[in-house]
Design goal:
This protein has a single domain, classed as Amino acid/polyamine transporter I. Helix content is about 70%, strand content about 0%. It is built from 18 helices and no strands. It is found in: Membrane.
Length: about 450
């Protein structure tokens, strides 16, 4: 067996009745970088003005709560990738642990998240591009970005991984630079880097309270969307059961630590900044305050790069979920299950997502963002339920450790996800349920045509 197919990798697919068609070339560092690129570390700047203002300077505390919340789901993903180290993520986990019909609908609803995230990135990027390239029409900005992202994904996962590495390094470098400037400002004003008010603003606690911080944390959970994307690379990762599981925890903890530490230092450096920040352009004001106009302009470039990196990863992830469903004939296999002979990627799916992404020219950021939550939170909840269904019900694991790992932890994850889900806006619910109804119709048509949904 050669290096592209480590021992046990092909066998793990064959035991599920699948053939290894995608290239196994990704190690733990590459998988982690893919997840970080999807997550986009610079997303910390996307919500800075809004959440730092609503929490009265306690954004760091809100990020800590969000990190703990997402860790429960990350642990459930880790358990499921050990059981089913195959592409398809939520779709495969729920299909095999609960029921093929439930799996189809779970996969269908999470597609809404994956297919919309590239669009959201194009919309966000189009808001920064006019600040530095004002003469280019916004719609043309989006078309150019969509073409670039689609071409990168078409040439193969290894090339995609290389671009992810470059983009993620740029983002980390900028966030680190911003942190250094924050520490410099703290020193210049004789503030303390251990000031508890950078975490919990005691003078404002009576006005905000825990409920206000938790509300901020609910929004900040959006910053973690994408840590799960690495599960879609299970058939392109070396030793996926270990690699993907480790990557999930590493990404969640490292991203959470970065978000908590950075926002803490930003708050200490500018204690009253939360009173002055604009909800939409707060990050631009922050960087201007800490490092001057040049760095504020650089923020625009870095945010464009961050959006590009996230779009590359999210398009790749969605293409592989569609591939998993197409391979199992849940959707037309001839199209969705097609793999490029030259580059070994699901090329038809990649092109389709690129075409759908053109809708970003007309969809607003508010509506698109809320629609993402509908699919993501339902999908996360189903992964938590799958842990119980597989390990407790199907495999019959018992004992105190099993109760904790397969009941308590996934139950916490499910409750948190559904608590956030029921508080989504009206448009998210309307469009989300319409999308789900289309999925139910597709499932019924498959059954009527006699298409097997057994995996």
């Amino acid at each position: 067996m050669n290096n592209e197919h480590p021992k046990g990798s092909e066998n793990s697919l064959e035991q599920f009745g699948y053939k290894q068609e995608l290239n196994r070339v990704l190690g733990l560092p590459a998988v982690c970088l893919f997840g970080f690129a999807y997550l986009a570390p610079c997303t910390i700047f996307s919500y800075f003005g809004l959440i730092n203002g609503s929490t009265h300077g306690m954004m760091s505390f809100a990020y800590l709560i969000a990190t703990v919340a997402m860790l429960f789901t990350a642990l459930s993903y880790r358990q499921m990738v050990k059981a089913y180290p195959i592409a398809g993520s939520v779709y495969n986990y729920t299909s095999k642990s609960i029921n093929p019909s439930v799996g189809f609908l779970s996969g269908w609803v999470i597609i809404l998240d994956y297919i919309l995230l590239p669009m959201i990135n194009y919309i966000i990027a189009s808001g920064f591009i006019p600040l530095i390239l004002p003469r280019i029409p916004v719609w043309l900005d989006m078309v150019i970005l969509i073409v670039i992202v689609t071409l990168i994904n078409l040439v193969g996962v290894k090339v995609m991984s290389t671009f992810d590495n470059i983009f993620i390094i740029i983002q980390f470098a900028f966030v680190l630079t911003a942190i250094i400037f924050a520490v410099k400002v703290i020193g210049q004003h004789d503030y303390s880097v251990f000031d508890i008010n950078g975490f919990i603003n005691l003078s404002e606690w009576s006005d905000v309270g825990l409920s206000g911080v938790v509300s901020g944390a609910a929004v900040l959970c959006l910053c973690f969307l994408g840590f799960d994307s690495v599960t879609t690379l299970a058939e392109e990762a070396k030793d996926p059961a270990k690699t993907i599981g480790k990557a999930l925890i590493i990404i969640t903890i490292c991203a959470g630590a970065l978000f908590v530490i950075a926002t803490f230092l930003f708050q200490v450096a500018w204690p009253e900044g939360w009173r002055e920040l604009d909800p939409d352009n707060g990050s631009y004001q922050l960087i201007g305050y800490l490092a001057g106009q040049f760095m504020a302009t650089m923020l625009c470039w870095v945010m464009i790069i961050a959006c590009l990196a996230s779009a590359i990863s999210s398009q790749a992830a969605c293409a592989r979920i569609l591939y998993g469903m197409g391979r199992d004939r849940q959707i037309p296999k001839k199209f969705f299950g097609h793999v490029s002979e030259k580059h070994k990627v699901p090329d038809y799916n990649i092109i389709l997502i690129g075409i759908v992404s053109l809708l970003s020219i007309w969809i607003s950021l508010d509506i698109g963002s809320t629609m993402i939550n509908f699919g993501a939170l339902l999908g996360f909840a189903m992964v938590n339920v799958s842990v119980f269904a597989h390990y407790w019900v199907k495999e019959g694991n018992r004992g105190p450790a099993a109760v904790f790992k397969y009941i308590v932890l996934p139950a916490c994850g499910t409750i948190i996800c559904m608590a956030l889900w029921v508080n989504l806006g009206m448009w998210a619910m309307i469009i989300g349920f319409i999308w789900m109804a289309i999925g139910v119709a597709a499932l019924l048509i498959n059954k009527k045509r006699g298409v097997s949904i057994e995996l």
